[in-house]
Amino acid sequence: QVQLVESGGGLVQSGGSLRLSCAASGTIFRLYTMGWYRQAPGKQRELVARITTSGSTNYADSAKGRFTISRDNAKNQVYLQMNDLKPEDTAVYYCNKNPPITYWGQGTQVTVSS
What secondary structure letter does DSSP report for 52? Predict the structure, then answer.
């Protein structure tokens, strides 16, 4: 049974940084492309960044140049370093496979104040 546990969110001022972590279990983590997604109030969940099994990365336009996704296959973890945060980055952030499975973790709240 897959489990995804996100952590590292919080309240930060505009221009600040946060590093999100996701611990995955119940799956052969290293075999899958992983992604970070976010859902802001009243909006659909969107893909922010993805990382393939070989380490290639892709970012949403809103994240390019500010966010960095990485993974540690030995630890079954995926990370999202977020710099220069903006109020519009406020959302609940989730990790999942890419494309995602139907199961979602609880997410981690990121709130950026102006």
Answer: -
Q: Give the Cβ contact number of residue 15 at 10 Å.
A: 11
CA distance 17 to 5: 20
pLDDT at 112: 98
Phi, psi (degrees; rounded to nearest 5) at 35: -140, 155
Residue-wise pLDDT for 59-103, tens only, equals 999 999 999 999 999 999 999 999 999 999 999 999 999 999 999
Residue whose token pair is 């960095």: 68
46: left (phi over 0), alpha (psi -120 to 50) or beta: beta
- DSSP 3-state of 74: coil
Tokens of 31: 């075999």
How do residues 43-63 score in pLDDT, each as one tens digit?
A: 999 999 999 999 999 999 999
In the chain, where does DSSP find H-type helix? none
